[in-house]
Amino acid sequence: MAPLSGVTDLAFRLMSREFGAKLCFFGMLDSNALTHSHPGTKRLVKTIKKDSPVAAQLVGSDPSVMLDAAQKLMSLADIQFLDVNSACPAKKVIKKKAGAYLLKDPVRLGKILKKLSSNLSIPVTVKLRTAFNGIGLKDTLKLARISQDSGASTVFLHGRTVSQGYAGDVDYASIKAVKDALKIPVFGSGNIFDPVLAKKMFDETGCDGILVARGALGNPWIFRDIERYLKNGNIAKKPALSVKKKALKKHLFLIDKYSLISPSHKAGFMGKVAMWYLKGLPDASRIRDGICRIKSYKELNGLIDGIRLRDGRHLSVPVIFHR
Ligand SMILES: Cc1cc2nc3c(=O)[nH]c(=O)nc-3n(C[C@H](O)[C@H](O)[C@H](O)COP(=O)(O)O)c2cc1C
Q: How big, in percent rounded to 5, are the helix, strand and coil portions of the chain?
């Protein structure tokens, strides 16, 4: 399971693991926030015994601050490895010379990786994009080689440029070129939305593994489905509405049980999660309207219980009003 900021909380990871995810990440963690013991950090690294193996990803730009942050992080959670984010396209991150900015500053990236890999007892990895705007394959290969030479033990490569954001074609050829050039494992990321696309990533690039990202939103079955398809070519049937409702209710239960987000934000977050599971159903827009009016976990559960298929096709959706 890929790192997804604001998504891959403990509840999300437990659901992913139940359906076959082999390893999960916390969402990206800010190195400055960690070094200043920002109270929000504790919420982001909340874990339990069952939530293993888990990895963490740091975003930052200063090698010494990153090391300090990594050491704090390792005192808070038992992580398998630490990833350096060199892929985040958010303007506020790039402005601080972090995230995808590091694609344009291989020397800084190399220093960060060297500092971490030579001082930490766990493996250090890096998540790259294929390019910043306009940089070609030659630069991507240089960046990948610098990562390897600076101590990265795996490269996670999102096959899109920074200017592409999350849209557009995945550049399988560049992932393959990086895989062929490196000795360390290379994982492909991008458009892993179903088992066929997962196989395509392996076939086109020869990569050692894949990261499932948006394909897992409201679809924890994707991990099991990919594994089965890769083993025997069987395409799993789409889960029935009753199966989706059951999984969604479990996911919400786990949020209610474990999430440390403030009660005022909890209902809104649960509504977002519910829409991941329910989108694509007939009448999804009416369901969304209903969910927008929800004020509590209990109300949301009631709304989900009331969603039924009529005539095998149409949904009946309970409408919730507030005075
Ligand atoms: C909501 C969201 C949050 C993300 N957060 C992170 C993150 O914290 N760290 C990271 O390296 N990539 C992050 N990504 C990128 C994903 O890990 C992944 O590389 C990207 O979505 C491409 O995969 P996909 O096309 O299969 O979704 C995020 C993507 C999305 C959509």
A: 50, 15, 35
Ligand 1 site-directed mutation target among 101, 189, 272, most atoms within 8 Å of CB: 189
Nearest residue (CA) to ligand 1, atom 5: 4
Beta bridge partners of 58: 29, 84
Residue 4 CA, ligand 1 centroid: distance in Å: 5
CA distance 142 to 140: 5
Identify the burial level of 125 via C-beta atoms within 10 angstroms of its C-beta, where 0-12 means exposed, 13-18 middle and 19 or more buried: buried
**What's the CA gap between 126 and 108, in Å, rounded?**
13
In tens, the pLDDT along 77-118 reads 999 999 999 999 999 999 999 999 999 999 999 999 999 999
pTM for the structure as a whole: 0.94
Per DSSP, 155 falls in state: E
Beta strand 24-25 pairing with 54-59: parallel
CATH top-level class of 10-232: alpha beta
Tell me whether residue 88 is one of the annotated catalytic residues: yes
Which amino acid would we find at residue 188?
G
